[in-house]
Please model this.
Amino acid sequence: MPRSREYGIPGRDEPILLDVHSDHQTFRIPLIDLSKYRHADSLSEKRKTADEIVNGFKEVGFIYLEGHGIPSTTSAAFFSLSSSIKDKLAWEDPRANRGYVKIGRERVTQSEDAAEIAELPNQAPDMKETMEIGRDWDKTWRNHWPRESDVLGFKQTMLDFYQMFFEDKINEQRHNLRLVSYPSIKTSLLMKEGQARAGAHSDYGTLALLFQDNVGGLEVENPRTKRFQPATPMPGTIVVNTGDLLARWSNDILRSTLHRVVAPPAESAANTDGNGSGMTPLRQSIVFFCSPNGDARISCLPNCERPTKPPSAITTEEYIVGRLASTI
Model:
């Protein structure tokens, strides 16, 4: 297996294991340098990096990607707008999946129980607000843009960011760009049973690319022990994870791993004494969710067949719309 650096302290030459349990089951999120692929002189060199990525998705479902060449951007200007402006851009339909979602409206969940899903937003809503952006040329579903005078350059900046990830083979561009803002709140509120900034969930499409700030709070479930462990921010990296549809295509050879966003470690939280007192700092991130064409039939690929029964076939639209309808 090609060697890659694992999650650890930035600047360290030797890998640091994320956690080591008494049963010796370790959990590594590989740190992979994509510049080796981008500047490779041969197909074999590119294959080495590709193998590292695939192995990371097989073992963990998550990787850190550095050397990607994507410039940073920010969503802070949008979220600083007044509620009266943002509310006019409200999310309306899971088929569109576009617009502003205010704090407390969404609760991501893996549950399939209708009664439980209906009650979750009242019991423990996700403590975040989001802005959902899709392909701007869609004639049926329109993006909800703020006025240029309200946030200068926002539309063009986000369209440029969205287009950056376009792949010719996914010609419908059924992707989704999500801007996320987790407000500063009392840390004690995030310590209540079932409460989180974003509840435990898997992502719906093929891949998710996360650009996070340095606050922290993302936790990934160890596939072996089922314990959640921090995915600490690493400057200059993108966190990339496998989604449900890619897992289905691969007959679950590639993992779609549960993850959540909780209060960051006490030592990184402002004015927090470790006992839940004080405030959890503002956290902002940008997530790019990649999805196949809407009518693409997702079933086990021929080279991924194995003795276990593969997930049932489903179209991209059927799966994603169904998941969205149960969360907002």
User: Anything to note?
Assistant: The chain has one domain: 75-325. Residues 75-325 form a domain with the Jelly Rolls fold (CATH 2.60.120.330). The chain is about 20% helix and 20% strand.
